[in-house]
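Support reply, case 0932

Customer input (verbatim):
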Amino acid sequence: MLPFTRTTLLLAAVTLAGCGADRIGSPPQSAGSPLLERAPAAEATPDFSTIDVPGALATSAQGINAAGDVSGSYVDANFRNHGFVLRAGNFTTIDYPGADGTNVEGIGPDGDVVGTHWSNGEEATAFHGFRRTRGGSFESVHYTSHLYEIPQRVLPDGSVLGCRHDHDLMGSMKGIAIGRVDTSENGAFASMNNGATPDRRLIVGLYTNMMAGRQEGFMISDGVFTPFVIPGSLSTAAWDVNPSGEIVGVYRTATGPHGFVMNNEGYRSIDFPGATATRVFGINARGDVVGAYVAGGVTHGFVARRTQESAR
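Our regenerated output:
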């Protein structure tokens, strides 16, 4: 498993509602979720490949662009967090200048990445946003009027999605979209905007349903907020969406976390072969997905590329 770092702190915060659902026995499905009434026909098994940064204790793949470049983070032998980009088989480590830790989340079509950095002397929730160009230049990504932010995705027009927060990762956390000329905020409780189509007409993410006592996924389609959960799950989180509207994420059952891909016909589970836990965080236009899996107590990144047969 991942050592206890700010990465695990963040993952614990965004899955808190799912843990609560275990205790209070919330219902397995929200009303009015037509996308989840049935799973689509089974596709051919995708082509799974493990992603391990050499020498890392743990690796997680977070984003993938149309060119197949993968972004993510890893923990080194000294329990320090670094970002990375995997391009054409070569890893590039990304560290924000002067920071004690760096996470990289999404990657854009031009190779720009977004993520967070922090200093050990700050409070545990002090995540600061950044963008790094393919050429290596860093710039701050900050949502004004709040202390901290967690950028998750960068779109083709340069818009950045994520969340803002103050001294906690629940009550003050709201999903945000920072455009070149405009910004918007999601009013849902403890929400994160994690992915969007290039025109931002469909945004996906996660929030905490306080009435049900669990984490749920959501879609914002042309301004209309619709929550959803995977049938039978204790919690659901949407982490990305591609230009065709295919949504990926993580749902949790009594057996642990599983990845999913969802479209307008339904959903299908993604489980890395032999893994005890699978999480899917990113998808590109082709339908390739990336995430992390646990096997033998170790967290590995992975890419599951859609085969020609499964794409039919």
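We compared this against your earlier run and they match. Two observations from our side: Residues 12-34 have pLDDT under 50 and may be disordered. The domain at 6-305 is CATH 2.120.10.30 (Neuraminidase). Please reopen the case if you see a mismatch on your end.
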